[in-house]
Design goal:
- The chain has a five-stranded parallel beta sheet with strand order 2-3-1-4-5, sandwiched between helices.
- The radius of gyration is 18 Å and the shape is globular.
- It has one domain: Rossmann fold, CATH 3.40.50.300.
- The longest helix is centred in the middle third of the chain and has 25 residues, at 85-109.
- Helix 2 packs across helix 10 and helix 7 crosses helix 8 (156-164).
- The chain has helices spanning 3-6, 22-31, 39-47, 54-61, 74-81, 85-109, 141-151, 156-164, 169-174, 186-197, 201-206, and strands at residues 10-15, 35-38, 114-118, 133-138, 178-181.
- It is built from eleven helices and five strands; from the N terminus they run αβαβααααββαααβαα.
- The mean pLDDT is 90.
Length: 211
Amino acid sequence: MTAAGERGKYVIGLTGNIATGKSAVLSMLRTRGALGIDADAVVHSALAAGGPAAAAVQAAFGAAFIKPDGGVDRAKLGDVVFADAARLQQLEAIVLPIVRHQVELQIAAATEPVVVIEAIKLLESPLAAQCSAIWVVTSSPADQRARLQASRPLSPAQAETRMAAQSPQAQKVAQANVVLNNTGTLAALEAQVQAAWSKIPALTAAGSGHG
């Protein structure tokens, strides 16, 4: 049993490669009463002015990556780390322990019976061991590319670089308890979410669900 399970909470580890639709799934699960923890938002907070990672990033990468307000210039840093695996690992060594600690605090404080951790690097993190189940969202490269460019000011080359920096989608699928295929409509995705949600043991035992 996971540590989270011992605390009486069912913890879903929600992951998938960049721009596959994880945030849409997290929103659907929040609508169903789950506590949603967005690891990316935790990262943004850590890199902001006064955040626990900002000074370490400046020491490791240089003042050129720090904005006038003291926060990390994430776009500028992203252009470097997504094109250089060693630099990406260096950044992750700074950020991931902070994310893990913050997420663990939120899980411990949760009153909801179901907690969802949305994290692109979940399976590479010790947080995976605290999950009751791993849900992986998949999508086609064309859809990923379109979502990336629609949601962020990225050139086609920048979008490709970020996609190429991800581990193969098949690796995540191989470790999944639930696979959500996001190559169709949002309604089709939500139907898959509801089917998986209805099978969560904690909710089945309580007779809970979402119609």
